[in-house]
Amino acid sequence: MKIKEIQEEIIDEFAMFEDWMQRYEYMIELGKSLPLIDEQFKTDDYIIKGCQSKVWVHAKLDGNKLIFTADSDAIITKGIIAVLIRAFSNQTPQDIIDADTAFIDEIGLKEHLSPTRANGLVSMVKQIKLYAIAYQTQLN
Amino acid sequence: MFNVEKIRKDFPILNRKVNGNPLVYFDNAATSQTPLVVINSIVDYYSNYNANIHRGVHALSQEATDKYEQARIKIQKHFNAAKAHEIIFTSGTTHAINLVANGFSSLLNKGDEVVVSAMEHHSNIVPWQMLCERTGAILKVIPINQEGELLIDIYQDLLSEKTKLVFCNHVSNALGTINPIEKIISEAHQVGAAVLIDGAQAAPHIVANVEELDVDFYTVSAHKVCGPTGVGVLYGKEDWLNKLPPYQGGGEMIAEVTFEKTTYAELPHKFEAGTPNICGGIAFGTALDYMNAIGFDAIALYENELLRYATKKLLEIDGLKIYGTAKHKTGVISFNIEGLHPYDIGSILDKLGIAVRTGHHCAQPIMDFYKIPGTVRASFSFYNTKEEIDILVQGVIRAKNMLQ
Ligand SMILES: Cc1ncc(COP(=O)(O)O)c(C=O)c1O
C-alpha cells in the first residue's frame, strides 16, 4: 500500500474512537505490541534525546524499500512510533521523502508532535526523512 | 483568617477548563498563577503611565520612575536588604546568576575552587561551569543522600582556603528540599568564600532575611511569586556589587561616555543596562504586597497541610515512590510509579485537566543520582485545595490502570 492509503486507513481507524480515553488506550496497546528494536541498535548512535522521553530509530534498506524499527522508554510515545512506522516503513525512500505527516493532526495526537513536548517524536519524523534522503542518494 | 475559597476568587485562570475539565494547576514550582491585582497593575501601567524611566523630564516618565523605584524599595523591605541599591532588577534568576558568574570571571584564578550542590537547577550549574572554563577554576560538588538532603559533613570537607565561591539553592525545584543555608553560608564565610543562594523556589514559601542570613547574593524570579514572567532580582551585598564589573554595556548603566573612556553609573544602574521590564518590576512589587497581605506564615502552614495530605494519599497508591523525602521540604512531590514512564502519566493527567510537570525538571544530575529518566512533579500553592489533590490522586490511579 502507498503511504497515503495507509494514512487514510489509520485516520479511519481512529475515527471510530469516541473520546480521548479510547484513543489513548489504543495507542498504549499499539505501544505494547510494537516489535522492539534490535538491542544492538538501542545505543547512543541511534538515540534521539527528548527532554521527556527517549526514542531510538534504526533504518535499513531491503531491496528498494526502507525498513524502520524504533523504540521509546515511554509507552504513549511508543504508540505514536508504531503509527509512524506503519505509515513510513517498507516504502521507497522517494515515497517517504514526498510524504507528509498531517495525518497525525487528524487522528488527534497533534499535541504529542509539538516541539514543546520535547519527547523526541518531532526529531524522529525528521530523522525518518533524513534516512530516506540518505538512502535515496545511495540508490541513485 | 486564611480562606482558600476567597483566595481562589483572586485568580481568574482558576476558572478555566482544560480538555473539558476544570483546571487543576499543580505546576506552581514552574510558574505561579497571577492574581487580579497584579494583572490590574499591568493594565494600569500600560493604560496610564507607560514611559521610559530615569530619562525624561515629563510627567509620565517621572511617574513610571517613581513607581519602579517604589517597587525596588518594596522588594528591598521584603528581603530586608540594607540598601535599595543592593536590589538589582534582572529578567529573572537565570539572568541574576549569569550576572554574578560573569563578574567573577575577573576575580578567579586558575586552581581556585567553587562549590555547588548536587541538587541544583541547570541555571545554577551551567553559568558556573562556563566560569570555570574561562578561569581554570575547579568545580566541586556537595553530594546528597537518598532522602534528597545535602551531606553537610562532606560540604565542610570540600571547603578550604582555595574555595572562593559557594552556590546552592534555598529550596530544590525537583525535590522540594529546604537546604540549611544558614550553615552553608556561615561555613563558607569561615574560609572567606562568597555565597550565592538561588532563592527561586524558596521565595513563594519562605521570606529570606538577607541581612540576618549574611548572604552575599540571593536571586529571585517574580513569576514564581504571583508576579509576571521575565523579571526578577539579584540581591547583592553592596561591597560585592561594587567589586564586580558590569555585565552588559548600554544605556542607563553609564555615568559618562567618550570614545576614550566610559565611567559606569552607581549601583544599581551599573547592572541595569538598557530599558528594563518597567511594568514587570512594578507588578512584581504588587505581587509581593498581595502575598504579604495573606501572610507568608499562613501560606507556609496551609501549604504544609496540603503537602502532608497529598503525600499520604499518593503513597496509598501501589508502586508509587516519592523522590525527595527530606525532613524540611516545601509543597513539592516528585514521584514515579514502578514500571511506568513519567511522560505517560503526565500525558494522561493533562487530558484530565491536571497540570503537572514531567521530565528531569532542569536538574539532570538529581535524576542521574536516582537513576531515573525523570519524575512526575506536583507542586502546590496556597490557592490549591485538598479536593484538587483528590482529583490528582484519582487521575494518577486512572493513568496507572490505563498504562499497566
Ligand atoms: C531552583 C531554580 N533556579 C532557577 C530557576 C530559573 O528561573 P528563571 O527561569 O525564572 O530564570 C528555576 C526555575 O525553574 C528554579 O526552580
Short description:
The complex is a heterodimer of chains A (140) and B (404). Chain A has a three-stranded antiparallel beta sheet with strand order 1-2-3.
What does the model show?
The complex is a heterodimer of chains A (140) and B (404). Chain A has 140 residues and is of the alpha+beta class. Chain A has a single domain (3-139), classed as Sufe protein. Chain: A (Alpha-Beta Complex). Chain A is 50% helix and 14% strand. Chain A has helices at 3-15, 20-33, 75-88, 93-98, 103-106, 121-139; strands at 47-49, 54-62, 65-72. Chain B is an alpha/beta fold. Chain B has 2 domains: 4-27 and 295-403, Aspartate Aminotransferase, domain 1, CATH 3.90.1150.10; 49-292, Type I PLP-dependent aspartate aminotransferase-like (Major domain) (Aspartate Aminotransferase, domain 2), CATH 3.40.640. Helix content of chain B is 40%, strand content 17%. Chain B has a 7-stranded mixed sheet with strand order 4-10-9-8-7-5-6, with helices on both faces. The longest helix of chain B has 20 residues, at 59-78. The radius of gyration of chain B is 22 Å and the shape is globular. The chains are: A alpha+beta (140), B alpha/beta (404). At the A-B interface, α2 and α3 of A face α12 of B. The structure holds pyridoxal-5'-phosphate (PLP). Residues 30, 92-94, 121, 123-124, 169, 173, 198, 200-201, 221, 232 of chain B line the site of pyridoxal-5'-phosphate.
Structural domains of chain B: how many: 2
As a percent range, the share of strand residues of chain A is 5-15%
Distance between the amino and carboxyl termini of chain A: 23 Å
- CATH architectural arrangement of chain A: Alpha-Beta Complex
Name of the CATH class of the largest domain in chain B: Alpha Beta
Task: Calculate Rg of chain A over CA atoms.
Answer: 14 Å
Strand order, largest beta sheet of chain A: 1-2-3
The shape of chain A is globular
What would the principal axes of the Cα set say about the shape of chain B?
Answer: globular
Fill in the CATH topology of the largest domain in chain B: Aspartate Aminotransferase, domain 2
